[in-house]
Amino acid sequence: MALEKKFVAPALPTAPAEYDQRRDDQLNYSLRLYFNLLDNYLATISGPLGGSGLGLPHIAASDSTDQYADANDDPTVVKFNTLDSGNGFTLTAPGTATCQVSGVYKITFSAQLANTANAVHDAVFWLKVNNADVSNSTTIFTVPARKSAGVPSYVAGYSEVTFTVDAGDNIALWWATDLAYNPTGPVDGIYIFHDAAQTSPYARPAVPSVIGSITFVSALTTL
After folding, report:
1. Alpha-carbon gap, residue 123 to 105, rounded angstroms
2. CA distance 154 to 142
3. Choosing a second label site near 47 at 20 to 30 A (CA), which of 16, 21, 191, 214?
4. Which has the closest alpha carbon to 170: 75, 76, 100, 74?
5. In 17-50, which positions are buried (b, 16+ CB within 10 angstroms) versus exposed (e)?
6. Longest CA span, the chain
7. Tens digits of residue pLDDT in 30-63
8. Rounded distance, CA 165 to CA 103, Å?
9. What is the DSSP track for 74-110?
10. How many of the other CB atoms lie within 10 Å of CB of 131?
11. CA pair distance 138, 214, nearest whole angstrom
């Protein structure tokens, strides 16, 4: 956690060999200025808008492509190709976030799931740290059968997980489905859908296939 402090402690005068009132006056003046700045700063961060003075580790990212599972029931890493904002993290293709600050974090994500099959199917998402599964991080989304031939059904799958990491750990989101859509053919099934921005019949922004963020919750503590 970083405090955006815009002042530093003053350089205090050195003590002379003999008492010098002017030196003491200079010292008291420097300290008074510094403590006034410190009091004002503490009053700011402890007030109603105090959070505006804090800079916390976080990352927000999204993806602008359709995403397909490698095969039925085959775990596949979720891609993030756009870094929307970040502090204390790096984003590495295909979508791994490397944390620079140890702590307790929360990941939240939303995946735009599409089903082109004429039956209900599931999509499953979970979290990995350093390629090891994070306990109790799995969420199952059930996507209804397509509306009609060529018209998929859609579900926005949202979830969140709180977890701990050490500095240098790599964080990735994974997914799988019991029926994977294959764009070659095509073969009907589940995929993560992206759509470009549109102007007609109304203007709206693009639909990212996945959008998510990792935010700082707390420093690591030992009970």
Report:
1. 24
2. 10
3. 214
4. 100
5. eeeeeeeeeeeeeeeeeeeebeeebeeeeeeeee
6. 95
7. 888 888 888 777 776 666 765 666 778 999 999 9
8. 6
9. --EEPP--EEEEEESEEEETTTEEEESS-EEEEEEEE
10. 10
11. 16
- Helix or strand or coil: residue 193? coil
pTM score: 0.80
Position 121: which residue type? H
The pLDDT, as a whole number, for residue 2 is 44
CA distance 161 to 163: 6
CB 128 within 8 A of CB 139: no
Share of the chain above pLDDT 70, in %: 91
| CA separation for the pair 169, 128 (Å, rounded) | 10
The pair of three-digit structure tokens given for residue 208, joined into one six-digit string: 């990212």
Q: Please, which residues have CB within 8 angstroms of residue 5's CB and are 6 or more apart in sequence? A: 41
Rounded (to 5) percent helix, strand, coil in the chain: 15, 45, 45
CA-based nearest residue to 64, from 205, 198, 208 = 208
Two tokens, residue 159? 């979830």
Side-chain half-sphere of 141: how many Cα atoms within 13 Å?
A: 25
Strand 132-133 versus strand 170-177 pairing type: unpaired
Average pLDDT in the 197-217 region?
97
pLDDT confidence of 84, banded at 50, 70, 90?
A: very high
CA distance 154 to 168: 36
Give the N- to C-terminal CA distance of the chain in Å, as an integer.
Answer: 21
Q: Does pLDDT of 4 surpass 60?
A: no
